[in-house]
Design goal:
The structure holds three protein chains of three kinds. Chain A is of the alpha/beta class. Chain A is 32% helix and 15% strand. Chain B has a single domain (4-191), classed as Alpha-Beta Plaits, CATH 3.30.70. Chain B contains seven helices and six strands. Chain B has a two-stranded antiparallel sheet with strand order 1-6. Helix content of chain C is 57%, strand content 4%. Chain C has ten helices and six strands. Chain C has helices at 52-58, 81-114, 134-168, 170-202, 210-217, 235-259, 267-298, 302-307, 313-319, 321-330, and strands at residues 3-4, 17-18, 62-63, 75-77, 128-130, 310-312. In chain C, helix 2 (81-114) runs parallel beside helix 7 (267-298). The longest helix of chain C has 35 residues, at 134-168. Classes of the chains: A alpha/beta, B alpha+beta, C mainly alpha.
Chain lengths: 980, 198, 346
């Protein structure tokens, strides 16, 4: 009978052997696989072709040297967990993927997307060459022609309408270097309208968290969740959005027998593993959090010592919380008081406790306030700044943290330097260009509609337009848009077109644009919406797996990804495209002054070195390419829980994995990075830190500096402000600076050297001396329970614009209409009108949205991957069994979902399930390619259409923007569903 | 010799489908063939659990018993494999299989459903190890390289365990003891006539 | 809890829903939480997790939800294959083997005892009467040829691996079985067509009546001397006809189900179809063996009816006297005598 030969050529790996056979047959792997097809008929044909070569290879025996298998490591591009991807490359072809056991983050594992990522690179549905739309038809063009035409059009638009009429949309899938380069490019072009996906995922987190304790980032790490004894996951579904993080979450749950509490309107795959599930009404996060705090304050479970030492104005919160009695919380959110009491007791008493949140908390008109409330919950219970605690914010895309850090943001320069003169001058010094020249690139804005005119300098310091409203900046009457001209051109890099709410209006905006350029590995939704005839370009960009560069994971660890294979087809990487464009526009020389260019491709290492030279404010200064590469080589040495390597290791000794920022000082200083932010139990040289003294030293007679709290081994044993050369002189620490450092500081300071700070000192001397004194450069402040600079200094509940509870609007209205980001935000009027028209009667179902594990973001990339697409072949809406039976809807049948604005409608399948409660519907947001029931497949350039198309959830989403960041409301609107 | 088994710890499985796409990736499995899948039980209800399922490589495998052409064989590692050269695509193994493992390239039986395809425990087929013919018909042969099935190796939460039956049972037992609960070794009774006693 | 399988529609999700109408406590219109203060989802998802034992208590297979459109894949564990296997591997070979060998033995015994049933040579008239026209014979032989190949290829599913494979080795057997399968699948169509034609053409002559009863009581002429009356078909032949019609239909239906698996039935249905197909197949073969015996070796002259289509008038008078009378009455010129001009059928 049949037996299996097991001896075999053990010395050769399968890829060598298989590849040897392939090479002899002159077929690439893909070619021969196409033949295989597992079919009987195909085998005969393929067999005759293949057998000879196999025999040949076998005859040569073990002495035959197959082509070398090269192992390349990069980082998965699909979420912020930062899983290492280990690729096996033979003859320049990516032939296999191996588990990356050495990575302390993913330990060999992947989710569906990571395990299918090889297909991205070889996908034949990629955009293969530059294309342009001519009279509604896609035409292939050369790169030179594309850059030429785009450049000419950009110049013409700029001359006629000003620099601000061009919008530069970057991507969270950029490498750090590309994100930085694009922000720099925007500055050189002369606009602050440079944005990316963080706007629509965690912009409110960044704003809320940074305004509470200093930095807008996850305080701890995925791995550190293993230390938690209680975890609350609010508005997040990591089982689908960050599956590999669940390895740490569930391990923590098991090892510590930890409480895992999931608070969500939807019974998610994550909730299935919870020890307690709290179902809330969408958009009532603040009542729920205040409801939890009410029990905490009522029972005295708060951490009084922590509050007195490290928190400012908690009493202001108490006043607001007092209003949220269990009865009122239940009336508004639907959550019974008893359940919240249980949650409160666990979170406050079974410590360390961590709070995990995602877009369920952030994507609201009250997103920033939600985040602030969550931070305050951590502060009140002392659950921040220690292992197992913290605000573990799971970010979305692979490098959304890094792209945010590096300034793809309309309100800041790279690394959160503000749009103020000091910030601009800092970067002008780093970039080695005159500040005045940068200023000259910006528009002068004439006075309009009663608004004052803006000088170039003022315009340079005015936040740009948010990506959530780019189309409003096209569609609205010009006098309502506070810049020289409405948007005329839209440059989209790595960003789907279906990701913003109010799609019907976005299509109208697309139609009016004078120029639309989509630079992406895939054509994206922009290509599929039938809105344009001409002046539209598609530029094929390679994935970040096909280029070098670093990416910052959600936990702030920076990982270096090496190019796995050459860019597929005619695609080019982001660096090269920006270089070519800058060359065409005439500022490549200055833009790449200190960057080596090889074959038109700027060096990623040099870009990172430039980031290091200017990245003091956020501690992006110590992560040199050499150090990061050493980390990738030595992954196995880092501890699973602390992420730290043993001190005695020659290459990475004492470092935390990926040098999580802040990593102070120059690389030579070998700061280990900061695995846990605001952790005072460590020396700053071991990654310890305090809350950032960012908001001054005193307010209303109350100190804003920490009291009796400081990092281990600190020379200063109380709160202290951030360090400047002036402070140094007072402390006498200026003497510790080297002559070179001093010279640099004096040169930067000019007439006022005292003002040179830890963040602007290019010598790194101030940071170095701070570390030697055991103090944190940014000062030792208190976290703010009252953030007076925000619209709602203490978060208050505000009903969603389209609320299912119009009866609550009088008591909890949304914020009044006001102008933000150069445009009016008329949320209040919209809400008022909705209540008056009783929209909730005609659209009785709450519509919320979220992720599927198989897809990511706008979904074009993942829906083009057949391995993933096969698993989710249709757009669907989850509808409660009760609602479905009332409407005669059966599982799997088509339904029409109608939205409350724009007479919008979308056709999709119904998934009848109790995951959603009665009166709630859920849609995944990854689909596009259908619009109002019409299949738009033919609008894609031939051969680039994704495998799976479907109606975009944003077809039916509605108005609503967070006042602080312009975040859109995707998690709570209203809809009606009927059988199709 | 090891007795290779799969064990899916449903208290860890989050239906992320990594096992499914890892399999597709490793073996270039075509559209429509699902050597592995994840089934969610009690969907949307408390107690919801997801289980990743593929060929369990049964003891005294029913597929092998009912095969009219005896194309199945069991390796020294107790992996149940089959020969596509002998398989006639009759579909009987699917009728006998408790786990829905056998897959066919074509939907209808008219003419032929094509050669049956199923999980090989990443250990190829009767052809020579690492040969093109083996790869073509069955996918790659990780076991011969000393590696375990990629689905289990890449499982996001380490829910899916592969390896020697006694070892993975031990790992599972320790987990259950540590965390205090466990919904059991799904399919073991049916596949191996035994379960993991805690 | 009871599971009810909801209608699957082509794509999205193969589903089985928990249909428990009582589980949806009335909720406030815009509020997902029940008024009794209890969270409808239950407080501790972990503690209440489902397990195999519990699920098997409520259903004979464990079914859930999958995202792929293949509805079959939603079944996680379906142990019913055990019974199917037991039948196929333990019972079927015995049933089939004993049935077929038993019939062969019975026929051999009968042959030894009774010998070949002969017509009296002296009575042979030398005149022929057309018993089956060309179309009828074509239909018969098409069906018969298909049947033989279908039987052999069908038996190969049961006995091939037991008898043939050890003889010729797995590779040769593999190719043979593959061709056998192709022939089984493709010849099923002409076979089914043939059965349909034969039923259509002969059904009116095969309606059972009182004459058949007498024929049976007289032992059909096998046992004693002399022939009982018979019309065009005697009771024995009618039996064969109805067997072919019935078994043919059953084989056709079950076969079609297997040709298009899962289009109508689920896995258990497929198993049942397989069992029926195999059992009837064996019975069919057994029955046809007897038919072949009588038509060839067992009775002199019978073969001519399907061979040349013409039988000796005397043979016809002996075996189908009533039919001959009717035929002769029909034509003024007496019986359709031999010649190269067969009359049109009816």
């Amino acid at each position: 009978m049949l037996t299996k030969r097991k001896s075999g050529a053990a010395s050769r790996t399968k890829h060598q052997a298989v590849a040897a056979g392939l090479a002899a047959g002159m077929l690439d792997r893909r070619g021969f696989l196409r033949k295989s097809g597992l079919a009987a008929g195909a085998l005969a044909a393929a067999g005759s072709l293949q057998l000879g070569s196999v025999r040949q290879a076998r005859a040569a025996g073990s002495s035959a040297v197959g082509p070398e298998t090269v192992i390349k490591k990069n980082v998965c591009t699909h979420c912020s967990v930062g899983c290492t991807v280990t690729a096996e490359v033979v003859n320049g072809v990516w032939v296999g993927q191996e588990p990356s056991y050495a990575s302390p983050i993913n330990r060999g594992t992947h989710c569906a997307k990571g395990a299918a990522i090889r297909e991205l690179v070889s996908s034949d549905r990629r955009l293969k060459y530059p294309m342009k739309l001519v009279a509604g038809q896609w035409q292939r063009i050369s790169w030179d022609q594309a850059i030429d035409e785009i450049g000419d059009k950009l110049q013409a638009i700029r001359e006629k309408n000003g620099a601000d009429s061009v919008y530069w949309l970057g991507s969270a899938k950029f490498t750090n270097e590309a994100a930085y380069l694009m922000r720099k490019f925007g500055a050189f072009w002369g606009t602050n309208s440079v944005d990316h996906q963080a706007r629509i995922c965690h912009s409110t987190t960044v704003a809320g968290v940074a305004n509470t304790w200093g930095y807008g980032a996850q305080t701890n790490s995925y791995n550190d969740i293993r230390n938690a004894k209680t975890m609350i996951i609010l508005g997040g579904n990591p089982a689908e959005a960050h599956p590999v993080s669940m390895q740490h979450v569930l391990s923590g749950k098991e090892i510590n027998r930890a409480n895992m509490i999931v608070i969500d309107p939807r019974f998610t795959r994550t909730a299935a593993h919870a020890t307690e599930y709290v179902r809330i009404r969408s958009g009532t996060d603040i009542p729920v959090v205040w409801g939890i705090l009410w029990h905490i304050f009522q029972n005295g479970w708060e951490d009084k010592e922590f509050i007195s030492q490290r928190v400012y104005a908690m009493d202001d919160v108490r006043k607001e919380v007092a209003k949220w009695t269990p009865e009122e919380v239940e009336r508004v959110s639907g959550v019974p008081g008893e359940q919240l009491k249980r949650v409160a007791e666990k979170f406050a008493k079974e410590k360390p406790a961590t709070l995990i949140w995602c877009m369920g908390a952030t994507q609201h008109t009250v997103g920033t306030a939600n985040v602030r409330a969550l931070c305050i919950l951590c502060l009140a219970t002392g659950n921040v700044g220690k292992p197992g605690t913290g605000a573990n914010i799971f970010r979305g895309h692979t490098n959304v943290q890094g792209a945010t850090d590096l300034g793809l943001d309309v309100t800041s320069l790279p690394l959160y330097y503000g749009l103020v003169e000091g910030g601009w001058r800092h970067w002008a010094r780093v970039w080695d260009v005159p500040y005045e020249w940068l200023q000259s690139r910006f528009d002068e804005v004439p006075a309009t509609a009663g608004r004052k005119a803006r000088t170039r300098k003022e315009n340079m310091e005015a936040p740009g337009i948010t990506s959530t409203r780019w189309f409003d900046a096209v569609n609205l009457p010009p006098e309502q848009i506070d810049q020289r001209s409405p948007l005329k051109a839209f440059m989209v890099f790595g960003h789907g077109g279906n990701t913003v709410t109010r799609l019907p209006e976005a299509i109208e905006g697309m139609n009016k644009l004078e120029l639309l350029v989509v630079a992406d590995p895939h054509p994206t939704t922009f290509a599929a919406l039938d809105a344009r005839q001409d002046n539209t370009y598609l530029l094929p960009i390679c994935t970040s797996l096909e280029m070098d560069g670093s990416r910052t994971a959600s936990n702030r660890s920076i990982q270096w990804g090496e190019q796995i294979v050459q860019p597929a087809f005619e695609s080019k990487n982001d660096y090269e495209v920006l270089y070519r464009l800058a060359t065409k526009l005439g500022f490549a020389e200055t833009l790449f002054k200190n960057i080596k260019i090889e074959n038109n491709v700027p060096s990623a290492e040099d870009l990172l070195r430039e980031i290091n030279r200017g990245g003091w404010s956020t501690g992006y200064c110590g992560q040199s390419p050499e150090r990061l590469k050493a980390h990738m080589r030595n992954q196995a040495k880092f501890d699973l829980i602390t992420l730290r390597a043993p001190k005695d290791d020659p290459e990475v000794g004492g470092d935390y994995y990926g040098l999580p920022w802040p990593c102070w000082g120059k690389p030579e200083l070998r700061h280990p990075g900061s695995a846990i932010l605001y952790n005072t139990s460590l020396h700053v040289k071991d990654g310890g830190s305090t809350f950032r003294a960012r908001f001054g030293t005193e307010r209303n007679g109350e100190t804003l500096l920490a009291e009796n709290s400081f990092t281990k081994g600190s020379d200063l044993t109380d709160g202290y402000p951030e360090f400047t050369f002036g402070v140094f002189k007072k402390l006498g620490w200026d003497k510790d600076l080297t002559a070179d450092e001093l010279a640099t500081i004096l040169k930067i300071g000019g007439e006022k050297p005292e003002t040179v700070s830890w963040a602007t000192d290019l010598s790194g001397g101030i940071q170095r001396v701070c570390l030697d004194h055991g103090v944190i450069p940014f000062g030792n402040g208190k976290a703010r329970a009252n953030a007076w600079n925000l619209p709602d200094p203490v978060p208050v509940h505000r009903e969603p614009i389209y609320t299912p509870r119009p009866d609550l609007v009088a008591k909890y209205p949304t914020r009044p209409d006001e102008r933000q980001f150069r445009m009016p935000n008329i949320g209040f009027s919209v809400q008022k009108s909705a209540v008056e028209r009783n929209v909730a009667r005609d659209f009785p179902i709450i519509l919320t949205s979220g992720r599927l594990v198989e897809y990511e973001g706008g979904g074009e990339e993942t829906r083009s991957n057949p391995w993933l697409a096969e698993l989710q072949q249709d757009m669907f809406v989850e509808i409660n069994t009760g609602d479905a039976s009332e409407r005669g809807i059966k599982d799997g049948q088509f339904v029409w979902v109608t939205g409350a604005e724009n007479s919008s409608k979308a056709r999709m399948k119904a998934l009848v399930t109790d995951r959603v409660g009665k009166g709630v519907a859920f849609m995944p947001f990854h689909f596009s390619g259908w619009y109002e029931g019409k299949d738009m497949r033919d609008f894609y350039p031939k051969g680039t259409d994704p495998v799976v198309l479907g109606e975009s959830s944003n077809s039916v989403t509605t108005y609503g923007f967070d006042p602080v960041t312009g975040m859109q409301e995707t998690k709570c609107t209203l809809c009606q569903i009927k059988a199709a | 010799m090891a007795r290779m088994k799969f064990l899916c710890d449903a208290d860890r499985c989050i239906e992320c489908n990594a096992c499914v796409t890892a399999c597709k990736n490793e073996h270039e499995v075509p559209w429509g063939i699902n050597r592995r899948r994840v089934v969610t039980l009690n969907d949307g209800k408390p107690g919801e659990r997801s289980v990743s399922m593929a060929c369990m490589h049964c003891t005294d495998a029913p597929c092998a018993a009912v095969c009219p052409v005896n194309c199945f064989y069991t390796t020294a590692d107790a992996v149940v494999l089959h020969s596509k050269d002998i398989c006639i695509g009759c579909g009987y193994c699917f009728y006998a299989c408790p786990f829905g493992a056998p897959q066919y390239p074509r939907v209808g039986n008219f003419g032929s459903r094509g050669k049956m395809d199923k999980c090989t425990y990443c250990s190829g087929g009767p052809e020579a190890d690492f040969s093109v013919a083996e790869y073509e018909k069955y996918g790659s042969n990780r076991l011969a390289e000393g590696k375990l099935p990629l689905c289990a190796e890449m499982c996001s939460t380490k829910a899916l365990l592969a390896g020697d039956g006694e070892m993975i049972a031990e790992i599972y037992k320790q987990r259950v003891v540590k965390r205090g609960y466990g919904s059991g070794a799904w399919g073991w009774k049916t596949a191996y006539r035994e379960t993991v006693a805690i | 809890m009871r599971r009810a399988v909801t209608l699957f529609s082509t794509l999205v999700l193969a589903t089985t829903l928990l249909a428990a109408p009582g589980a949806f406590a009335p909720a406030r219109a815009q509020n997902p939480i029940t008024q009794d203060g209890q969270n409808p989802m239950g407080a501790k998802p972990t503690a209440d997790s489902v397990n195999e034992e519990f699920l098997f208590k409520n259903a004979d297979k464990i079914t859930g939800r999958v995202s792929i459109p293949d509805r079959k894949s939603a079944n996680l564990i379906q142990p019913q294959g055990r019974e199917y296997r037991a039948f196929r591997e333990s019972w079927l070979p015995w049933i089939g083997g004993l049935g077929i060998l038993g019939m062969i033995a019975a026929l051999a015994g009968f042959f030894l005892w009774r010998g070949r049933i002969l017509t009296d040579d002296t009575q042979e008239s030398g005149r022929k009467i057309l018993r089956f026209n060309a179309f009828e014979r074509f239909a018969h032989w098409m069906t018969a040829t298909c049947f033989i190949i279908l039987s052999l290829s069908g038996l190969n599913y049961i006995f091939g691996k037991r008898l043939l494979m050890p003889l010729i080795g797995p590779e040769a057997f593999g190719s043979l079985a593959q061709w056998a399968k192709y022939s089984h699948v493709y010849l099923a169509w002409p076979f089914m067509l043939g059965v349909v034609i034969m039923v259509a053409v002969w059904v009116k002559d095969n309606i059972p009546n009182r004459i058949d009863w007498a024929w049976i009581k007289a032992g059909g002429g096998f046992l004693g001397k002399g022939h009982p009356h018979a019309e065009r078909f005697n009771a024995g032949q009618k039996g064969v006809f109805w067997m072919v019609a019935g078994f043919g239909a059953a084989m056709g239906v079950t076969g079609l189900m297997m040709l298009f698996p899962f289009t109508v039935l689920d896995i258990n249905g497929m198993q049942v179809m397989q069992v029926i197909h195999a059992l009837i197949g064996v019975a069919f073969i057994v029955g046809i063996l007897a038919h072949i015996y009588i038509g060839t070796l067992g009775m002199k002259g019978a073969y001519d009816a399907m061979g040349s289509g013409e039988v000796d008038l005397a043979w016809a008078r002996a075996h189908h006297d009533l039919w001959v009378e009717k035929q002769q009455a029909k034509t003024a010129s007496g019986p359709q005598l031999t010649g190269r001009h067969p009359a049109p059928a009816e």
